[in-house]
User: Fold these one by one.
Assistant:
Number 1:
Amino acid sequence: MDFIHVFQPPASPGGPILLLLHGTGGNEHDLVPLAGMLLPGAGVLSPRGKVLERGMPRFFRRLAEGVFDIEDLKLRTAELADFITATAADRGFSTRDVIAVGFSNGANIAGALLLVRPEVLGAAVLFRAMVPLIPEKQPKIPSTPVLISNGKMDPLVSAEETERLAALLRFAGADVTLSWQTSGHDLTERDVITAREWVAQRQAR
Ligand code: MLT
């Protein structure tokens, strides 16, 4: 159940924990600098995806670009959710204080967590996310705040796909903010600024 990961405690006990979920070919170190830009002083939990696609780490298998192995995705989502719960118990933080920050493949597994195991996240920032799966039973997301930051010119994620994801999460109960960037699949400075402001507003509540 364990993942190779980076853990950094928050500057103050009980502070927020950013769950960093990298994209295909990334690792547990990739998004650590982003954590400091989004919310200085937050703790960090950054696992490395266990699936290898031609040597590139991912969080679940895919059959082709944008076509997911749903059985594997369900299994990996459960495994990641159990890892978050176990780490929270070990390190003494609440899963309510966990803010997922995922990019691409990492955003897709964060979306799956929201749809299948919403209790392990307090909030989520999804950069370049798709619909990961359609859950078998209607999920109940407890008003979890979710930011989707996608690119208008993304060749991998269409506007319709993004709207479908926002609608699915909203219908399940999430409090979704959808932000469009004038960009493709890569992360931009605008994404970081948007996410930083969104996280700060949420923390101030
Ligand atoms: C995925 O496989 O999760 C998406 O195609 C995004 C990617 O990792 O390229």
Number 2:
Amino acid sequence: MNIAILPGDGIGPEIVAQALKVLQCLDEDFNIETALVGGAAYEASGHPLPDATLALAKKADAILFGAVGDWKYDSLDRALRPEQAILGLRKQLALFANFRPALLYPELAGASSLKPEIVSGLDILIIRELSGDVYFGQPRGIRILPDGQRQGFDTMHYSESEVRRIAHIAFGAARKRGSKLTSVDKANVLETSQLWRDVMIDVSKEYKDVALSHMYVDNAAMQLVKAPKSFDVIVTGNLFGDILSDEAAMLTGSIGMLPSASLDANSKGLYEPSHGSAPDIAGQGVANPLATILSVAMMLRFSLGKPEQADRVEAAVKKVLAQHYRTVDIATPGCIQVNTQQMGEAVVAALAH
Ligand code: IPM
Ligand code: MG
């Protein structure tokens, strides 16, 4: 099994180093190769997704990705900005299905910004379409209007086949859980959403055992903080999924707890924490590596065919939380506050026992 490691920028290298320790102590015969991506690659070679990095990612069975981006690149041409690396990987590797589970560990109920009774027991899965929508739609740009002022524009579109394939993924995933699927759209305003909804309804005929409902995205944003436990699986487009998955992350105490998997049609995947590169805390050793470590668990389960190893990693994370180890983002009174490296070491120690 070939695994490509792309640490990226900001806190990326720190958290990936801990996840790598966890991966390496599993005693499996993985072939691991590392490459630069994002701002780090731009500095070294003038492009955020160099050919060599893309080639490594293409030949790998799975990719572990840290995070990319830094404000210092905000004035670069869009094509050279760090974010283009992750967007380019998603597009070029056809990683269209993004799984973002929001699971509240009982020990972290007090770390959520919502009351414990609203979030305790929370276990939802957001499935975000990842390779279409206004993120990639053409044309886009900034143009000059006849009156001389500039106008920014983007194009939102989804083809029927794009909606159909993410629908099958979502219905399949819902079937393995609580069999409740909420499709989130903005069909009261957008044509793209109307087609999305029509296709969801059509595909639902093949999954009579899954209860499909529809929700407008504004209401979904509200329900996520009002009654988050009423959701089981959410399926939505790229842009809405970006926003709602950050919101769902906060319910779990910290975005530092949320792993993600981005899969192609053959279960090859890119695994990354749902959070960003957090340049404000980079290099301080305070970042929470658990989202990245939990992303390794998803990698073991979805792409490497090692579900029992995935269970081990997840059990080790549960154990360190039960032992009260906390990075600052999830610190609660009475906890044992640790830094990034100590958290990684605690998970490795938990795996050994
Ligand atoms: C995410 C991130 C990315 C996105 C950025 C870094 C391009 O916010 O993975 O959610 O918008 O998809
Ligand atoms: Mg995001």
Number 3:
Amino acid sequence: SPPAAAEPRHASPAAPRRLREKLRTAARMAGPPAHTAPGSRQQVQGGERRAEPATGDPPARETRAPFRFDYERFHRSLRHPVRGRRAGEDPETRSRRMKIKEMMKFAWDNYKQYALGKNELRPLTKNGHIGNMFGGLRGATVVDALDTLYIMELEEEFQEAKKWVEKSFDLNVNGEASLFEVNIRYVGGLLAAYYLTGEEVFKSKALELGEKLLPAFNTPTGIPRGVINLSSGMSWSWGWASAGSSILAEFGTLHLEFLHLSELSGNPVFAEKASTPQCLVMNIRKVLNRVEKPQGLYPNFLSPVTGNWVQHHVSIGGLGDSFYEYLIKSWLMSDKKDSEAKKMYDDALEAIEKHLVKKSAGGLTYIAEWRAGFLDHKMGHLACFSGGMIALGAEHAREERKQRYMDLAAEITNTCHESYERSDTKLGPEAFRFDAGTEAMATRLSERYYILRPEVVESYMYMWRLTHDPKYRQWGWEVVKALEKHCRVEAGFSGIRDVYTTTPTHDNMQQSFFLAETLKYLYLLFCEDDVLSLDDWVFNTEAHPLPINHTNFKA
Ligand code: DMJ
């Protein structure tokens, strides 16, 4: 949702400055080997260096080696080539994949022609859109598209995007940004581009931007606020969020990227297990583990001041969604070592299954929302990612739950497919309901739109990879045809305002996540499993691939 009047404002310049100093120290440590000056000794502690008075002792060499991320070693540790080996595919699969590649090229070419450097393309008016989510940052579509272009072997287009990042991507901006959106799209996009290509520019931009996000964590609990000024470091809560609260899906969707920022910089500040007021992502879990959860469920609004829930609304769709996703993916990304994340995920899913999973009269399984004890029999398009997530976690569940969770994942994905199937355009609405005789259809005018969202095809992609049931490719191909028919316009792809009419009005917006996610997941659906293999990668919530930590890549 767009920020309304953002309040309350919150700023404490001192702590951010301390954090920035820590990071600068780490950046120095990441530089070439340094030796201590004669007559002095340096102490390395918790990422900080302090000079001690000269003792007259002989010059001591520094004991801690300067940090360098060993890209070559990381690359060698991958179990599959990132773009796969291209073995054993049938001509139809190949031609469908090529069609999706053509769609990506069309989306990119039009963005480049009419909106390069703006955040999104307006394909009807053929101009750019900037918006107010990214705090003055530009080029959201460039950064979101980088890894998709690379994976699809659109080499020339990838070079165009890279050149823009090198020459024009300015991080010295002064504006109010969504911590969540900047993290998942920009930090995630840059990290993925670095891991895929080894190009230093992506790493350095990711680290620089990550540093600018840190002051948002300067709250009494360490739960970050949702909005941050990228220049001053002032942060505050969204004006629309109850009583200055932070949003579960926002502060719960930082972990994957922040662990990689720590990994690449050698600086634990992004993820450190601290009990100071500046504690960062690991601390978020501590707060969540401390607070009592109604029936084991996680409400969507938490006070960053008290660490208590502010309102009892629970949803696996908007406001809650990617918090759950990042728990299971944190565990997978840690090479199954992060048992805290796994336990939190298992417990949360158990509570969701017990209290929110329902079956309609017509036999469709869905996940309802919960409002202080009452169920709202509605599923948002956003909640449709959960089929893929539950499938991803199923094989690692306790023995007696494995099949049950796999069935649940398939049933939810089927319900989301029904929400597409029951529309005239074969694209799904923003939200669909199961009440008053309605099943898997929007009942409100305001919920009939489709803005090129990825969640349904995301679940098709996971379900395909994990079951190889051909229906998922078939369903994905239906989406391709519907996008071509209803969303493709002269200069790009556009969202539509009503999925229940075959002559829909376009919303004149080519969302950056269409290039980052929708087209990437569709493409992967028609690839062999070794392209961005799930053995090597987890996808962040914007579909940017981040590597599973098979080994320690410190040089
Ligand atoms: C994307 O930015 C991400 O998938 C996010 O988690 C939810 N919303 C959009 C796509 O619908």
Number 4:
Amino acid sequence: MKPLVVAIVGAGPSGIYAAEALTSQSEVPVQVAVIDKLPVPFGLVRYGVAPDHPSIRSIRNTLERTLERDDVSFFGNVAIGRDLTVEELRSVTDAVIYAYGAASDRRLDVEGEDLAGSIAAPDLVAWYCGNPDVHPETSGAADHPHRRNPVEDLIIGARETVVVGAGNVALDVLRVLIKEAEELDETDMADEVLEVLGKKSVTDVHLLARRGPAYTAFTTKELREIAKIENVDLVLDPADFDLDEASKARITKDKVAARNVAAMQDWLDRPITGAPRRIHLHFWTRPVRILGTDRVEAVEIERTRLDDTGRVVAAGPLEPIAAQLVVRSVGYRGTALDGIPYDPNLGRVPHADGHVIRQDGFSPDEYVTGWIKRGPTGVIGTNKSDAVETVHSLLNDVSDEALVARHDIAELTSLLAERGIKPLDLPAWQRIDAAEMARGQSHGRDRTTIVHHSELLAAATDPD
Ligand code: NAP
């Protein structure tokens, strides 16, 4: 039986889990092309998971096993929309699965949001994880005259920082900002990222949660971690833990909420030691305006409460918190890609069970999985069941003969070659991998991330 050629756009966990779901069934033979605009695979496992979470980052070893299969090929450094249009990709493959994630940020919609010193968490995360898209070739050592990445100046200059949002990304950002750079030495962070972090002088991180302690989006393990950071005082307002009836009802129903509240209640008993750095958790608080002339100088905050419909509304006077850096960590957002249906209200590709819906009904050959399918929620493992659902829809269409194998993967390879595009394959990634490990080991670490496109391409080059 001729194999079905399936292109997956995005080599993050959602794309690779889709490849795994396609190749671990035996009903329909497949040839899978996993395409990514970056030279390297693994998406947010490499460029989103915090570098001080090595066990979560090591999921990439499992993902790599899927890319090693004979019926899976990796096409790195190929951008759909730039190198090939979606229509061209569809014309040389039998089916396409979009798994390109949600790379943009949600807006706060407050005055001053675009002042220098106000940055979106996804940009900061991409910077400290070493994503080449935010490390221009001229960035580098903190005193490099042509350094362009604005994040670097902002971090070096900030003492007081406000992080808006009460999710796991806010905790990741908070840890990176408040930890001593030496505490991050054992991670795989790039040397130039560590160098900038070594020059930071952050003393206070204020985390703003617009609802109460019973409503955070933290997972308890990640929350508890912040109490283990050394030389840091945790500052909480005991009044926030005088729970109202709705909060009490919530923790009765929701085990994670109950554990989170219990963890934070324990911290109320911790003495304030006069440590050199502080984490302040502000509940029932939201930013109203970011203040400053040329750059952020303070954040005006207000107290909040929930109205009868559960909406967050204003509940108190305005007051400023001094800050030189504001990190908006209120969620990621999917973006439109030319030629792919997109719902701007939801920031997702419209679908039913992963089968893409176009204006005139179901697309004959397009599917979607991961954050661009369901929104930026869940942990990495959530993408596995999500991919299984999408692949199930695709396989059903094969059973119904709505989807038929007509193409050969060589058509994709030839089209790219005609364009002069040289995809980076799995051996190319393995050479980058080896170069990163060698770079790290020469400094007594397991790995040092290579951040610049040119260096990644050089490391990928086969010496023969
Ligand atoms: P998230 O979990 O959706 O949290 C977003 C936070 O922003 C919520 O506290 C939300 O509050 C708040 N927020 C939203 N709009 C706001 C506004 N206009 N003003 C003030 N606050 C606002 O998003 P995330 O932290 O970006 O994480 C994305 C996903 O990745 C999550 O599923 C997360 O668990 C996962 N992740 C997991 C890990 C890990 O397992 N270690 C690490 C990082 C990320 P409301 O609840 O009031 O809306």
